[in-house]
Amino acid sequence: MTTRAPARHEHPPVTVGAGPLTVEDVVAVARKGARVHLDEGALAEVRRTREVVRSLADDAKPHYGISTGFGALATRHIPVELRHRLQRSLVRSHAGGSGPQVEREVVRALMLLRAATLATGRTGIREETLRAYVAMLDAGITPVVHEYGSLGCSGDLAPLAHCALALMGEGDVRDATGTSMPAAKALAAAGIAPVELEEKEGLSLVNGTDGMLGMLCLAVHDLRSLLVVADIAAGMSVEGLLGSDDVFAADLQSLRPHPGVAASAQNIRTVMAHSPIRASHRTDACTRVQDAYSLRCAPQVAGGARDTLEHAARVAAAELVAAVDNPVVTTDGRVESNGSFHGAPVAYVLDFLAVVAADVASMSERRTDRFLDPARSHGLPAFLADDPGVDSGHMIAQYTQAAVVSEMKRLAAPASVDSIPSSAMQEDHVSMGWSAARKLRRSVDGLSRVLAVEVLTAARGIALRAPLEPAPATGAVVAALRSAGAGVPGPDRFLAPEIDVANRLVVDGTVRRVVEGVTGPLA
Questions:
Q1: What is its main location (predicted)?
Q2: Contact 176, 211 (CB under 8 A)
């Protein structure tokens, strides 16, 4: 999986509690090291609702999470002298993840989103606990969270519990440099006192869907960029394969008015504008009536993916203003149980995005394959090889691409339709949203690699059309690849580094940036 090294405080602070967070706020904290500022008005509400919890602490009537056990153990009334131990025991027992460590950016996103819920004042947590949690995030202390442990209901319990454990000064973390160490040592170095949890605080720290939501936000951000690259790649392939851009005309696309499809078609037209290669076969000598589906229907697939992505973004926006906890302190001071911790709304769109990412990748691979087959490439050498038979050209680049696409198709199988009952059948239906998010991250990484191979292959195919010149926009991509040492025709050479270069230029935004330097902003 492609990883992005965290920056430190290169972005303005993100304010929590004054209004809704955005996807870009999550990216700023998770990847760019932005600090978190707590709104004073939000802190006043945190203090007010904490008094509601305190008023119930000595109540003879049991209150879930305050004076009872948890899950299937909620029937036990916990005496006052054991309630601080109750919260510590909850965190320690729930920090039961296993497997590889989760990426730093995911843990930082998770922590930001938990802090945002705590800052709503609906959880009853203490102000000093919230401040310590944010201080840990700002210090670059990243608790060790493991791949397995969350069923997505009651939220992402195990991942959040590992973060709460670190706040208590227990367990393992990585500091701002990425060095692994005990949490107590990292907190001491940052001047943060370990928190002694009081009534309900352990529950408030672990009972949310923040892990899956954080990964959704990161995926929405990445896919918005990658789907523009998909349009650029499609335009390069249509041009290099001597296809037609007439089919992408706005009036034709308006007959089936999907916004994403219209945007993708517009992008492809823009990328191909003023192409001498396209003009070279706009003659009576060209007998082809229409192109293959992977060329002609590119806007329908990438555009449909865009519309699905915007639906997912609307779900993320709703979640970013949510207060997910159980029980919650209502605005009029009641403490009420609820089911908002169930991850289904997020899990569904995480699965939807894995489906469309796989399909966009599948079409990209088909366009790549057309470049390599002399029966379908309209005059290009077999596999774009310099001396076919002696050289293999991009033969194995397509193998690599096909292997990724095949895995992405497997990753498109939905996680959200699965459910394994837990907690002695008290939690008898779970969302598996965390699992949906984990596989989507791998799928997003796969899509960037598939598109990189198409861009690299199309650039080589376009270069082989010389002396015909490409469109100014596609030519800018060819030049960017060439300046980075990739995509130049010639005898076989070590190919893996060129694929890595192309992938880097896709992921870091270079491919889109050089095109927009010619065309202006793409849709």
A1: cytoplasm
A2: no
489 assigned to some structural domain: yes
Mean pLDDT of 155-171: 97
Same domain, 427 and 455: yes
Residue 5 clears pLDDT 50, i.e. is over it? no
Distance separating alpha carbons of residues 456 and 487, to the nearest angstrom: 5
**How would residue 72 be classed by pLDDT, with cut points 50, 70 and 90?**
low
**One domain for residues 226 and 83:** no
Question: How far is residue 260 CA from its own chain's centroid?
Answer: 20
User: Cα–Cα distance between 508 and 497 in angstroms, integer?
Assistant: 16
Nearby residues of 91 by Cβ (< 8 Å), 6 or more positions away: 161, 164, 165, 168, 197, 202, 205, 206
Distance CA 462, CA 277 (A): 8
Q: Is the pTM of this model over 0.90?
A: yes
Task: State the Cα–Cα distance between residues 188 and 195, nearest whole angstrom.
Answer: 12
**How far, in Å, CA of 232 to CA of 511, rounded?**
8
Q: Catalytic: 133?
A: no
Query: Domain for residue 135, yes or no?
Result: yes
Q: How would you classify residue 378: left for phi > 0, otherwise alpha for psi between -120 and 50, otherwise beta?
A: left
- Burial class from Cβ neighbours inside 10 Å (0-12, 13-18, 19+) for residue 409 reads middle
H-helix segments, 321-386: 344-372
3-state secondary structure of 4: coil
Choice among 64, 133, 148, 348 that is catalytic: 64
Contacts of 521 (CB under 8 A, 6+ apart): none
- Retrieve residue 515's tokens: 């095109």
The 10s digit of each residue's pLDDT in 110-128 is 999 999 999 999 999 999 9
Last residue of a domain, one of 179, 207, 235: 207
Q: What is the mean pLDDT of residues 380-397?
A: 97
Residue 148 has which token pair?
């397995």
CA–CA gap between residue 153 and residue 421 (Å, rounded): 10
In this structure, are 277 and 362 located in the same domain? Answer: yes
User: What percent of the chain stands above pLDDT 70?
Assistant: 97
Can you give the CATH number for the domain in which 493 is found?
1.20.200.10
**Would you state the pLDDT for residue 80?**
76
Domain that holds residue 133: 14-207
CB 238 within 8 A of CB 464: no
Any bridge partners for residue 16, and if so which?
Answer: 38
Torsion of CA 223, 216, 315, 10, to 10 degrees: -80
